[in-house]
Design a protein that fits this description.
This protein is mainly α and about 230 residues long. The chain has nine helices and no strands. Helix 2 (about 30-50) packs antiparallel against helix 4 and helix 3 packs antiparallel against helix 4. The radius of gyration is 18 Å and the shape is globular.
Length: about 230
């Protein structure tokens, strides 16, 4: 049972990211540059999040209360994340030519690198040393971790669609909407964890958010990229 659960999370956090990258690399239209743009967004977000002035802002929110601190910090990171995506797509990709599949590739790249770094590498090491470490694996938590990373994918795709549309059209309110949605989701999940909600209930909230985002990912193909051929 432990091995099956470990294999599931390995597929989600290592094989799907790697397989997706190979598919985008070999695709006749070529989306590897978009993939790396998404990866760069995650790296930029990580680098910005450890900057002292961001930590100081977050710490200054402590006196405002738990909710203000959590959602204030989440909003700050949401703004930084979408601003980084906006700038990377604008100056690295040539945003005026970007279409629906380009935006999805950026979102997938962000998700894939985050999944690999935060979960995938550790699970891969456990899998390679399963005879020694397998007994220590909690199968329930392992599957929960894999599902959580899988549910985040549609969220990343939707955020990328909104922000890249903003870069392409100059309607920066759309990027602002993405930042706010990003903050609401992250803040809600953090607040639920702090207040003691069980992991399974938090996963259900994440799953419902993923379904909502997946609906809009398909919906926005027509609404946002009618002029594109893909």
């Amino acid at each position: 049972m432990n091995l099956i659960c470990c294999l599931f999370t390995l597929i989600v956090t290592v094989l799907i990211p790697a397989g997706g990258f190979i598919f985008l690399l070999d695709h006749e239209e070529g989306y590897s540059k978009q993939f790396f743009a998404g990866a760069a967004t995650y790296v930029a977000l990580y680098l910005f999040s450890v900057l002292p002035f961001l930590s100081q802002i977050s710490n200054s929110l402590v006196s405002s209360g738990l909710i203000a601190m959590i959602f204030g910090s989440a909003l700050l990171l949401g703004i930084v994340s979408e601003a980084a995506r906006l700038m990377i797509c604008r100056y690295y990709l040539g945003y005026r030519n970007m279409r629906y599949k380009d935006a999805l590739s950026v979102g997938f790249g962000h998700w894939a690198v985050e999944a690999l770094i935060t979960v995938g590498f550790n699970v891969f090491i456990i899998f390679l040393n399963f005879s020694q470490q397998g007994a220590m694996v909690d199968p329930f938590m392992m599957v929960m971790t894999g599902l959580e990373r899988l549910f985040v994918l549609p969220i990343m795709l939707l955020l990328s669609l909104l922000t890249i549309y903003s870069a392409r059209t100059g309607k920066y309110i759309t990027a602002g909407l993405a930042a706010v949605f990003h903050a609401i989701f992250n803040g809600t999940v953090t607040l639920l964890g702090v207040t003691g909600m069980s992991n399974i209930n938090i996963l259900i909230v994440t799953g419902l958010t993923a379904v909502f985002c997946l609906f809009w990912v398909f919906k926005l193909k027509k609404l946002l990229y009618e002029e594109g051929t893909n």
